[in-house]
Amino acid sequence: MDSVRSPDWSVAPLGGLAANSAAARYGTPSGGHPPAARGPATPPPPYRPPGPVPDTGFAARPAGESPAAPPIPVKLLVAGGFGVGKTTTVGAISEIAPLTTEAEMTSAALGLDDPGVRSAKTTTTVAMDFGCVTIDRSLKLYLFGTPGQARFGFMWDDLARGALGALVVVDSARLDDCYPAIDFFERAGLPFVVGVNAFNGRVAHDLTAIRWALAIGDHVPLVQFDARDRLSVRDALLVVLDRALDRATRERET
């Protein structure tokens, strides 16, 4: 078969220019001097935008001043029965897009997941909800919403680890759904606040009757709030935070 031969370039002497280099084949540039060896590259000067520097909204820190300490993280739980408004509560207050684990309810859950006759709920939390909100420069709340179904109860122990308090969300028309949540936090010894979610702006019973039905002591705060309203959720969480701080203060003094 035919073969292909490479061009017969002349062999350069040892240590000289390669015979097939551009300089050997085409000669040196005009002027008779080979190009000077290129030294290390000098980095270009930093880019400076023309005109005045735009204001980014962040004041420059004076020289020698130490940076501000990051806010203290505080973990709180938002718990309760199925369909009481836990996911809505976290989403209403979170300053970031809340992390949710919502899944479509199917016919396989009939008889297990009952959101109530007033609810148009079609999804359910299968793991947790997560959001956060900065109270001030020294404090930031991290909110973990628990799943409401009994079959996901094994998640509660893990979610409660490291939490300082909890908001137990209650539907006043379905008080029996919140008993397991109250029992959980009483056994765990975790400070909690009962928040009665005002569906459609109203509750089915007054707070005194709800406290009696839930059999909770006067030391447990009972508040009414709207899970859809950011300011209302804020006020409920501040009650939880106040109770958690009061508990921590008393424990430190003893």
Fraction of helical residues: 10-25%
Q: Would you tell me the structural class of the helices and strands?
A: alpha/beta
Q: The CATH topology is what? A: Rossmann fold
Q: Order of helices and strands, N to C? A: HEHEEEEHEHEHEH
What's the overall average pLDDT, rounded? 75
**Uncertain residue segments:** 3-7, 14-22
Q: What global shape is seen?
A: globular
Main beta-sheet strand count, sense and barrel state: 6 strands, mixed
Look at the structure and name the CATH superfamily.
Answer: P-loop containing nucleotide triphosphate hydrolases
| Beta-strand percentage range | 15-25%
Care to describe what's here?
With 254 residues, the chain is of the alpha/beta class. Helix content is 24%, strand content 19%. It contains six helices and eight strands. The strands form two sheets. The protein has a six-stranded mixed sheet, with helices on both faces. The model is unreliable at 3-7 and 14-22 (pLDDT under 50).
Short structural summary:
With 254 residues, the chain is of the alpha/beta class.
Salient structural properties:
two-stranded antiparallel sheet, alpha/beta, Rossmann fold, globular, 254 residues, 24% helix, 8 strands, disordered N terminus, 19% strand, 6-stranded mixed β-sheet
Task: Please give the structural blueprint.
Blueprint: H1 22-26, E1 72-80, H2 86-93, E2 102-104, E3 123-125, E4 129-136, E5 139-145, H3 154-160, E6 165-171, H4 179-188, E7 192-197, H5 207-214, E8 222-225, H6 230-253
Parallel strand pairs: 1-5, 1-6, 6-7, 7-8
Antiparallel strand pairs: 2-3, 4-5
